[in-house]
């Protein structure tokens, strides 16, 4: 009896000794903030093409040539910047920085929300914020990607709400912002959720029913594209100009494929970078060969698109934003992972040390320079107005 009492006291004392620091809210907040800061500074936030902000005219930029016309069909960021009159100022730099940060945090917040009740909840947030999407967004500040990622965050929350109306509304936003990527990924996401059987802690709604399929995004996506088409026609701009040029050009297509093949190993690494372990484990713990085939089919859509486009990694990462978020939840909530307690720690460790990179180009593919200190200093000077955005 006394022995049991002693053991009891030792056990509770040990628990009190172990739990105070890494289970406390303040520590979890600090860890999340550190992961967010590291995700940004390890790539060196940068504005690669500040001259492409078109300060001389307003959206839909009627004077764009056919090589650049695709930018008018991803308009949300440009429209907002013009609405707030940010035109080529440090405020515009801050605007794109905040957009990238907000979309990254929303995606990570969705993962955290889905892991409610799990011991891995905070770890899920950190892995999500360290995923390649954060790196890509801060490597390409000034582009439209943050607003596409924001659309996928809205789509994930709409899916969690189990509302077809909200899924359709998120789809309208995505179709207006980036129809091509969104339409293909609605199909890919649907295949993936079928393969994974939507196996997340919050799969069931309060009524006990399963969630609606992400395919309900598709009607909204089509509606959003139709709305954008009408707006462009009203503005006197050909709505068919843009990404169709790249599809119709066999030369650009062959250049893109050759570049992907020539740089195969680094191209493969860049696709998932810091979350390769998550993806590998998702396939490993998934039961049934049919489900694995279905998941591979879902992944083949963004892989194919990244091969045939010049912005190889960027396109893949932006298309797989919802897939990676679901993979993180699926893996960290799996009972098979809980059995091997060091495994989630290893997954997170790899997410901290494997730095996202992007490759782009034709047969002369190039990798974004990873000199984060210089890039961060330049960016801060642009943010403070010490370095001009154009001609600086």
Notes on the structure:
Strands 1-2 form a two-stranded antiparallel ribbon. The chain has one domain (2-42, 66-384). The longest helix has 33 residues, at 164-196. With 392 residues, it is mostly helical. The radius of gyration is 22 Å and the shape is globular. Helix 8 packs across helix 14 (289-307) and helix 12 (264-272) packs parallel to helix 15. It is built from 19 helices and two strands.
Features:
2 strands; about 400 residues; single chain; about 65% helix
Write the layout of secondary structure elements.
Blueprint lengths: L1 H21 L2 H17 L34 H8 L6 H25 L6 H9 L2 H8 L5 H17 L2 H33 L20 H18 L8 H6 L1 H13 L1 H9 L3 H10 L3 H19 L4 H8 L1 H12 L2 H5 L2 H12 L5 E2 L5 E2 L4 H13 L8
Antiparallel strand pairs: 1-2
Helix pairs in contact: 2-5, 4-5, 4-6, 4-7, 4-16, 5-16, 5-18, 7-8, 8-9, 8-14, 8-16, 12-15, 13-16, 14-15
Mean model confidence by pLDDT: 85
Number of helical segments?
19
Helix and strand pattern: HHHHHHHHHHHHHHHHHHEEH
The biggest beta sheet is recorded as: 2 strands, antiparallel
Q: Enumerate the strands of the largest sheet in spatial order, edge to edge or round the barrel.
A: 1-2
Tell how many strands the DSSP assignment holds. Answer: 2
Q: Any idea what the radius of gyration is?
A: 22 Å
How many separate domains?
1
**Global morphology:** globular
Helix % is 55-70%
Query: Low-confidence parts, pLDDT < 50 over ≥5 residues?
Result: 1-17, 199-209
Strand coverage percent? under 5%
Decide which structural class fits the backbone: mainly alpha
* Quaternary organization: single chain
The end-to-end span amounts to 78 Å
């Amino acid at each position: 009896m006394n022995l049991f009492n002693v053991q009891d006291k030792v056990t509770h004392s040990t628990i009190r000794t172990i739990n105070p620091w890494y289970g406390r809210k303040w520590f979890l907040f600090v860890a999340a903030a550190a992961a967010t800061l590291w995700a940004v500074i390890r790539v060196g936030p940068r504005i690669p093409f500040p001259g492409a902000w078109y300060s001389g005219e307003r959206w839909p930029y009627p004077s764009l040539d056919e090589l650049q016309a695709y930018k008018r069909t991803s308009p949300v960021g440009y429209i907002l910047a013009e609405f707030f009159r940010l035109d080529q100022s440090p405020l515009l730099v801050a605007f794109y920085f905040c957009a990238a940060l907000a979309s990254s945090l929303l995606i990570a917040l969705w993962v955290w929300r889905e892991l409610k009740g799990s011991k891995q909840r905070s770890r899920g947030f950190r892995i999500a914020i360290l995923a390649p999407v954060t790196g890509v967004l801060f490597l390409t500040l000034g582009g439209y990607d943050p607003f596409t990622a924001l659309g996928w965050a809205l789509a994930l929350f709409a899916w969690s709400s189990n509302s077809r109306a909200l899924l359709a509304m998120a789809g309208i936003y995505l179709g207006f912002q980036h129809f091509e990527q969104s339409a293909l990924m609605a199909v890919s996401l649907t295949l993936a959720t079928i393969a994974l059987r939507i196996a997340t802690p919050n799969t069931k709604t309060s009524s006990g029913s399963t969630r609606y399929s992400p395919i309900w995004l598709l009607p909204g996506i089509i509606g959003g594209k139709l709305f954008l088409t009408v707006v462009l026609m009203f503005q006197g701009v050909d709505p068919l100009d843009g990404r169709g040029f790249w599809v119709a050009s066999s030369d650009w297509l062959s250049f893109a494929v050759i570049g992907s093949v020539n740089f195969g190993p680094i191209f493969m690494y860049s696709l998932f970078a810091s979350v390769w372990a998550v993806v590998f484990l998702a396939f490993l713990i998934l039961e049934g060969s049919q489900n694995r085939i279905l998941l591979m089919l879902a992944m083949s859509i963004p892989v194919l698109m990244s091969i045939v486009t010049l912005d190889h990694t960027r396109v893949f990462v932006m298309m797989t934003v919802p897939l990676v978020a679901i993979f993180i939840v699926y893996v960290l909530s799996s009972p098979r992972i809980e059995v091997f307690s060091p495994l989630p720690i290893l997954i997170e460790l790899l997410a901290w040390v494997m730095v996202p990179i992007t490759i782009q180009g034709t047969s002369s593919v190039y990798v974004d320079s990873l000199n984060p200190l210089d890039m961060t200093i330049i960016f801060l000077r642009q943010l403070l107005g010490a370095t001009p955005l154009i001609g600086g």
